[in-house]
Design a protein that fits this description.
- The complex is a heterodimer.
- Chain A is mainly alpha-helical.
- Chain A has helices at 16-36, 46-67, and strands spanning 6-8, 11-13.
- A two-stranded antiparallel ribbon of chain A has the order 1-2.
- In chain A, helix 1 packs across helix 2.
- The termini of chain A are close together.
- In chain A, 12% of the residues are buried.
- The model of chain A has no long low-confidence stretch (mean pLDDT 86).
- Chain B is elongated, with a radius of gyration of 30 Å.
- Residues 672-676 of chain B have low confidence and may be disordered.
- Classes of the chains: A mainly alpha, B mainly alpha.
- The A-B interface holds A 11, 31-32, 34-35, 38, 40-41, 45-48, 50-51 and B 69, 148, 167, 170-171, 174, 234-237, 240-241, 353-354.
Chain lengths: 72, 676
């Protein structure tokens, strides 16, 4: 699996950038849901947890896009 | 035995000194780790000027965790905006040096203006946008054709530094801002409740004593504002629900306003009538509130519970009376209790979030005073402009470095207001310290170091003590700049160059930039605290008159937001009475809005025009007459006419206005003698 750069009006952008943005958006959504339902109160170290969730979602996003052959 | 005791004492002293030194040293270690991580990533990606990543990581690292997390996010946003603006500016002025430099200065000035208007960490985004453009422009001016690559590289380096710093600090410290905020908010709630009880039981020896206590409480409430952002940065729930924390602070101001109304009214009554009225109200308060009148304030446990405060409100509002004086006092006490309920709700969010009730966020953006922002903008424009002119005339090769650091110095130290000159002097001294240290490290210790690990260990030997010293309050003015300038002075690159001439030119450029920034802060000083605070008072009076004259139709929430913003913006060294004037304006404005609401559709059966006109004109003699006439007009309406309850409330509002205006007539007439 190898990704190709994205051409935006002649500017080549690494495919990792939109994947990171997507993973960040999903993480923020999950965080909002967790706060809304009171689950965030059970987290001992919020910053560590959020970074871990972000990394997991980013990994899943990369694997998903790779398997669906998007940006490849 | 004596020797054993001496040894035990020596051991204790060593342990105490070690315990005291641990937090600063730990901070130094985290700083060094963040800088090393940022430099590693920048080296790995083979970025042109990796030292910007290390510098940014050092800037982002702060001893207070919450501020790092939110600050990091705002810095990312600001850096991106600055980078885009730099590219657009270069595209707009190809081969046009004058236009490019002028717009660069206008952009920096505008960013400084916005940074001053915004509060807390949102201001950092504007600041970053300003000097990120200067950083990129400083490099791209010699090669405008490569501005896009330079912008991408610079922005990447800055973002790597932000992420590295945020990651290391955020992951290695839990922070305690919510606990600190809780520790400050709870005593304020109980002390305000106790203050009301003492007013009702006449426990104060004089009006001055009571007023002094109330003003001190106002200042403490205003000081909670920056801590709210820090607390929000440490907890996702607090971040999402920080409207409750802002409402809590505003509730404290409202409670003090209510207490002031009660106190003013009781002082205007004959002693016997005041005692009877106060006794009736005291009966409605919980036992621990009554006990706190003679005892410690922290014994008032019920005031920390929202439901308990709401029960007090219901009890006071249910008080059926046709006595105007009792109605006014009961409403004032109910205002105190309902406002403390809001504050207790904020406290519940900090202690037990499940119990905190939702509060809709208030998106009102209020600017307390535009003048300080304008002065900061002009300082950046002319201060940096002078360095730019010098560079153009002298063609000095290190000119761009001086421009960059002059901008950073002015923009970073301007928000410190009265302490900015000391900060700028510290910046210059600290830059000198970092120049000496960087020279020793670069030419003495880094030579022949081939691996990144060796490089990181060597720079850590410098960064750990610098970071530790920068976290100590007394040493911070000198060692914070020394820490921040250490990495750019060192200028580490993927293949280190050891050119003494380049090093000396860079160091000189940085020093001149910092000195120029400091000079600008001295030559274009901030508004003195006395003038700044007087302006806030004058602007509030002007707003009150506009409200009374109906030229502005603010809602209750908008009016309160306006006054809260000015209370928070009041300088720390302002005369306490000026905060009282603002609370008086808040109080009278609230009564005016309530009266307008009550008088709509003729619900109180009388015209408020004369009252509003004389309040707007500042004519207190006419105002007193108009208030008395209106009160009589409403009083003669028989109770059997529908709306008796509303009419009584209207009369209470009129009385509250009259008493407030009489108590601080010098303010409402527009001639506060305090500052003559």
């Amino acid at each position: 699996m190898s990704f190709v750069e994205i051409n935006v009006f002649g500017i080549l952008i690494s495919p990792f950038v939109p994947l990171m943005a997507l993973a960040f958006a999903i993480t923020m959504l999950l965080r909002w849901i967790a706060v809304k339902n009171g689950w965030a109160r059970s987290i001992w170290h919020p910053a560590l947890f959020e970074v871990s969730v972000f990394v997991i979602i980013l990994t899943m996003t990369v694997l998903l896009f790779g398997s669906l052959r998007i940006y490849t | 035995m004596a020797e054993a005791a001496t040894q035990a004492r020596r051991r204790n002293r060593i342990l105490t000194a070690f315990a005291a030194a641990m937090p600063p040293l730990l901070y130094g270690v985290r700083l060094a780790t963040a800088v090393s991580l940022a430099l590693f990533v920048a080296f790995y990606l083979q970025l042109e000027t990796p030292y910007w990543a290390g510098t940014t990581a050092a800037i982002v690292c702060q001893p207070v965790v919450g501020s790092t997390l939110l600050k990091g996010l705002f810095r990312l946003i600001g850096s991106a905006i600055g980078a885009v603006a730099a590219v657009l500016l270069t595209m707009a002025f190809p081969q046009e040096r004058v236009g490019f430099l002028f717009c660069m200065l206008v952009w920096a000035g505008a960013c400084s203006f916005v940074a001053t208007l915004l509060r807390n960490f949102a201001a950092y985004a504007a600041m970053l946008a300003g000097y990120t453009l200067i950083i990129i422009a400083g490099t791209s001016i010699a090669a405008p054709g490569h501005v896009f690559d330079i912008a991408i590289n610079r922005a990447s380096e800055i973002c790597i530094g932000i992420v590295a710093g945020t990651l290391v600090i955020g992951l290695t410290d839990l922070g305690n801002a919510p606990q600190r905020l809780s520790g400050l908010l709870a005593p304020l709630i109980t002390e305000i409740a106790a203050h009301l009880s003492r007013v009702l039981t006449s426990k104060f020896s004089s009006q001055q004593e009571s007023s002094a206590i109330r003003r001190a409480l106002i200042a403490r409430a205003a000081a909670l504002d920056p801590l709210i952002d820090q607390a929000a940065g440490e907890s996702p729930e607090l971040l999402q629900r920080r409207a409750l924390l802002r409402a809590a602070t505003n509730g404290l101001f409202d409670a003090l306003s209510g207490a002031r109304i009660v106190e003013t009214h009781l002082q205007n009554l004959p002693a016997r009538e005041a005692a009877e009225t106060a006794h009736t109200i005291l009966e409605k308060l919980p036992p621990d509130w009554r006990a706190a009148a003679a005892g410690p304030a922290d014994a008032i446990v019920s005031a920390l519970d929202r439901e308990s405060n709401l029960r007090v409100v219901r009890g006071l509002l249910a008080l059926r009376t046709t006595d105007l004086s009792l109605r006014l006092t009961a409403d004032g006490a109910a205002d105190v209790a309902s406002s403390l309920a809001v504050a207790a709700n904020g406290l519940a969010l900090l202690r037990d979030p499940a119990r905190a009730q939702h509060v809709p966020p208030n998106f009102t953006f209020v600017v307390a005073d535009y003048l300080p922002a304008l002065i900061n903008a002009l300082r950046v424009f002319f201060g940096v402009g002078a360095v730019v002119l010098f560079w153009l005339v002298s063609a000095w090769p290190s000119g761009p470095q001086a421009i960059i650091f002059a901008t950073i110095t002015i923009m970073v130290f301007s928000p410190l207001q009265g302490r900015s000159v000391r900060g700028a002097i510290g910046q210059s001294v600290g830059t000198g310290i970092s120049a000496i240290l960087a020279g020793i490290f670069k030419f003495g210790l880094l030579v022949n170091r081939d691996s990144f690990l060796a490089f990181a260990l060597v720079i850590s030997i410098g960064l750990i003590p610098l970071g530790a010293l920068s976290s100590l309050p007394l040493a911070a003015p000198f060692f914070v700049p020394a820490t921040l300038n250490f990495v750019p002075m060192l200028a580490p690159t993927n293949h280190m160059t050891f050119d003494t001439i380049t090093f000396l030119n860079t160091a000189f450029g940085l020093l001149v930039g910092c000195a120029a920034g400091g000079t600008a802060l001295v030559l274009i000083p901030h508004l003195p605290a006395k003038i700044a605070s007087q302006r806030l008072v004058d602007l509030s009076l002007h707003d009150l008159r506009r409200l009374a004259a109906d030229t502005r139709d603010w809602t209750l929430r908008e009016w309160q937001s306006r006054m809260y913003a000015r209370l928070i913006a009041m300088p720390e060294t302002a005369e306490p009475i000026l905060r009282s004037y603002l609370v008086a304006a808040l109080s009278v404005g609230i009564q005016v809005i309530r009266l307008k609401r009550l008088s709509k559709h003729g619900r109180i059966g009388a015209e408020l025009t004369q009252v509003h006109m004389s309040l707007a004109a500042g004519d207190l003699a006419k105002l007193r007459q108009a208030l008395s006439t209106l009160n009589n007009d409403i009083a003669v309406i028989p109770d059997k006419v529908p709306g008796a309850h509303g009419r009584l409330r209207a009369r209470a509002a009129l009385l509250a206005i009259e008493e407030t205006v009489n108590r601080q007539s010098e303010f409402f007439e527009g001639r506060p003698d305090e500052l003559r």
